Amino acid sequence: MTEQNGVLSRITNGAASVAGAAIIALLVIQIIIVILRYIFSYGISWALDLLVYLFLVASLLPLPLVIWENHNVRVDIFYQSYRPPNKSLLDRFGLAFLLFPSTGYAAYISWGPMLNSWRLLESSPTLDGLPGYFLLKTILFTSFASLSLVSLVLAMKRRPWAYPDKSDEES
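Below the sequence we write its predicted structure tokens.
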């Protein structure tokens, strides 16, 4: 299981690095588009597609890492007072019976449209848009499938994450 965790960790960290680069590219390209449009009165028809592609990459690729590293936001009144074994049990339940089935189902239903999109080599629905719309559907499927895999791997662990003791939190 440790070797699998190492591979999964490298993949999720790599995806997060790509997402970070996409955020920087998104910001730079948006600034260029605004300058071209409002200073030089020059519009680029495919620019919106490029921003959508980059936003999808930046928002979906780091999701498995967020779950893997337990960087998700918890808005819970009771969880913070639970002991580590109870937290582990609750987390494993949520991973196995909530996150895994929902992301697995989302991956399952996005599989057909993704394959159809690849068969057609679907391009953007906007006029003069970017080609490669099938890549967006692939990223969507891959994100759901990887979230499903990460949730299953974590749910099978005895302790999905490290739980600090109360004494560690107070200091």
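The chain has a mean pLDDT of 88.
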